[in-house]
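Re: that chain you flagged

S.,

Sorry for the slow reply, it's been a week of failed gels. I finally had a moment to sit down with the sequence you sent. For the record, here it is as I used it:
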Amino acid sequence: MTDPYRLISQTQAAYARAIDDDQLEQWSDFFADPCTYRVTSAASHRDGLPGGIVYCTSRGMLKDRISALREANIYERHSYRHILGAPYIVAERGSHVDSETAFMVARIMHTGETALFATGKYIDTYVIEAGQARIESRLVVCDSSRVDTLLVIPL
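Prediction finished late last night. Pasting the structure tokens below so you have them in one place:
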């Protein structure tokens, strides 16, 4: 098997790059199908609450989210800059790899104002097949329970 750490590191970097460079139509390509993508707070995660601020259960839902962002949602224009920690491999089970990666995301408003938007960790399960790592499950655990209403771009 190809080195899962290297594949996951490359996938993480490409994922952040696609979001930060406003190539959001590529976002769903980082996921397997079926998949889950959920954003929650550390407190909700700690308390075992299954709901989330964002909850998608397929690549189709991820694509719909970007389509809505581009065509229907009204929001103040902004972009992100991700800073990622090194992935920590928690477990390997055949073609499935569980990992955790710390992140910081700065939000840059159209005015040029930049602020720390979110910190936390990705709790992921990857499927490694044909030399590629695809996200089967991504739980975005934000350190703060205070989430800006402007969570329109994926984390």
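What I noticed first: The first strand starts at residue 31 and ends at 41.

Talk soon,
D.
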